[in-house]
C-alpha cells in the first residue's frame, strides 16, 4: 500500500535565540553569571601549527599540559600516532603531521575559512547559558577546534567537545568530491551546520549510554530527544539545520507525518529489535531507503517521527523539565503520555 503522498517526484538530496525579558533587581548579579558561562573556543590547531618558537620539546610539552586528555586522544585516536611515543609527548609524530605538505595546505585553507570563531562563540554562549540553567549540576563544558584531514566532525570527552573545522569548509570545497564524499553530504559540510552539530554532540556525549534498549521504539525516541535538546538550546536556529534537511525535505516530512507513522505501524516496526533492518529509518542519505518508502522521501524519517513524539510529550507534560526528559529512559511511558496521534 502506498501510504505516502507528494506532489513533487524529484529526488531530494540530503548527517547541531530568543529569551524572555526578565526584571533584574541587581544587574551586578547577572553580569558575572554571563561572564562565567562565556564560551571561548580554544584553537588547538592554531597552537599546534604555531612554529614561531620552533617545533621543539618545549612546544609540545606546553600543549600537552594545556590540553591534557584531548591532546593525548588527538595523537593516539584521531591521527593514530603510536602510543609508545607518549614519553616525549608525541613530538616526532606531531612534527611529521604538522610539516606534511597536504596537512600544511589544509591548515591554510581552514585558516582562510575560519580566521576567527567569534560568531560561533557568541551563539554557543547563549546555548550554554540555557544548558546550565536546565542542568544546574552540570560541569563546565570546554570547546576545542582541531583538524585531522577529514577524519572527524566532532569528538566528545566528558566535558570537552572537539570541533573538526576541516569538516565545515563549504559545499563547494574542491576536495570533498575528490575524497568521494556522497553528494547528499555536501550541504552539511557548510559552516552553518556547525552549531547544531556541536550541540547534538554535547547531547550524545552526555546521554548515549542510556540507550541500552534495542527496540526501534527506543532508538526513535532517543533520537527525538537529541533533536529536542538541540532545538531547546538553539531556539533561533532553523529546523533545516537542526534536522539536516533541505527545506523541501522538511516540507515533505510535515506533509507526510501521519503517513510516516502509519507506515511504522503497518510494518510492525515499533517493537522490532532487528537493528540492521530498522537502521535504514535513521541513517543519513538522499532519502529513506526502506521498502514502501518512496524515493522522494526525506532521509532518516525515524528521527523526525521521534522528535514529533517528544514534542507532543512535552506539550502534554508541561511540568517536565528538559533535564527530566533527557534522563527518562522509559520509552514506552514517553510514547503513552505523548498521546501522539499525527
Strand content: under 5%
Q: What is the first-to-last residue Cα distance?
A: 19 Å
Total domains, how many?
2
Mean pLDDT: 90
Quaternary organisation: single chain
How does the helix and strand content classify structurally? mainly alpha
Helix content: 40-55%
**What is the radius of gyration?**
22 Å
Work out the number of β strands.
4
Major sheet strand order: 1-2-4-3
The run of helices and strands is HEHHHHHEEEHHHHHHHHHH
Largest sheet: 4 strands, mixed
Unreliable stretches (pLDDT < 50, length at least 5) are 6-32
Count of individual helical segments: 16
Principal-axis shape? globular
Question: How does this model look, in words?
Answer:
With 342 residues, this protein is mostly helical. The chain has two domains: 36-207, no CATH class; 211-338, no CATH class. The chain is built from 16 helices and four strands. A four-stranded mixed beta sheet has the order 1-2-4-3. A hairpin with a 2-residue loop joins strand 3 (154-157) and strand 4 (160-164). The radius of gyration is 22 Å and the shape is globular.
Brief synopsis:
The chain is mainly α and 342 residues long.
Topology of helices and strands:
Layout: H1 27-37, E1 42-43, H2 44-49, H3 57-78, H4 91-99, H5 101-113, H6 118-134, E2 142-146, E3 154-157, E4 160-164, H7 175-178, H8 194-207, H9 216-233, H10 239-243, H11 247-255, H12 257-266, H13 275-278, H14 301-316, H15 322-327, H16 331-338
Amino acid at each position: 500500500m502506498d501510504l505516502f503522498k507528494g506532489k513533487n517526484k524529484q529526488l531530494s538530496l540530503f548527517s547541531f535565540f530568543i529569551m524572555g525579558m526578565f526584571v533584574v533587581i541587581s544587574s551586578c548579579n547577572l553580569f558575572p553569571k554571563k561572564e562565567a558561562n562565556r564560551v571561548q573556543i580554544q584553537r588547538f590547531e592554531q597552537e599546534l601549527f604555531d612554529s614561531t618558537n620552533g617545533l621543539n620539546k618545549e612546544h609540545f610539552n606546553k600543549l600537552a599540559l594545556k590540553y591534557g586528555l584531548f591532546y593525548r586522544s588527538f595523537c593516539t585516536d584521531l591521527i593514530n600516532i603510536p602510543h609508545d611515543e607518549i614519553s616525549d609527548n608525541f613530538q616526532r609524530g606531531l612534527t611529521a603531521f604538522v610539516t606534511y605538505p597536504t596537512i600544511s595546505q589544509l591548515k591554510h585553507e581552514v585558516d582562510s575559512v575560519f580566521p576567527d570563531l567569534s560568531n560561533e562563540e557568541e551563539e554557543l554562549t547563549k546555548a550554554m547559558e540555557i544548558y546550565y540553567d536546565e542542568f544546574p549540576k552540570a560541569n563546565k563544558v570546554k570547546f576545542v577546534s582541531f583538524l585531522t584531514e577529514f577524519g572527524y566532525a566532532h569528538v566528545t570527552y566528558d566535558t570537552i567537545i572537539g570541533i573538526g573545522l576541516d569538516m565545515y569548509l563549504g559545499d563547494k570545497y574542491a576536495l570533498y568530491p575528490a575524497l568521494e564524499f556522497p553528494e547528499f553530504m555536501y550541504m552539511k559540510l557548510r559552516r552553518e551546520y556547525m552549531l547544531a552539530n556541536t550541540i547534538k554532540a554535547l547531547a550524545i556525549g552526555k546521554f548515549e549510554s542510556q540507550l541500552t534498549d534495542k527496540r526501534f521504539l527506543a532508538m526513535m525516541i532517543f533520537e527525538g530527544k537529541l533533536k529536542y535538546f538541540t532545538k531547546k538550546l538553539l531556539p533561533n536556529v532553523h529546523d533545516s539545520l537542526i534536522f539536516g534537511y533541505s527545506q523541501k525535505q522538511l516540507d515533505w516530512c510535515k506533509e507526510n507525518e501521519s503517513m510516516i507513522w502509519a507506515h511504522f505501524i503497518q510494518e510492525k516496526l515499533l517493537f522490532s529489535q532487528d537493528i540492521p533492518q530498522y537502521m535504514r529509518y535513521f541513517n543519513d542519505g538522499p532519502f529513506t531507503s526502506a521498502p514502501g518508502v518512496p524515493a522522494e522521501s526525506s532521509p532518516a524519517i525515524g528521527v523526525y517521527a521521534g522528535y514529533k513524539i517528544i514534542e507532543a510529550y512535552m506539550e502534554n507534560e508541561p511540568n517536565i523539565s528538559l533535564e527530566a526528559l533527557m534522563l527518562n529512559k522509559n520509552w514506552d511511558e514517553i510514547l503513552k503520555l505523548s498521546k501522539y496521534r499525527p
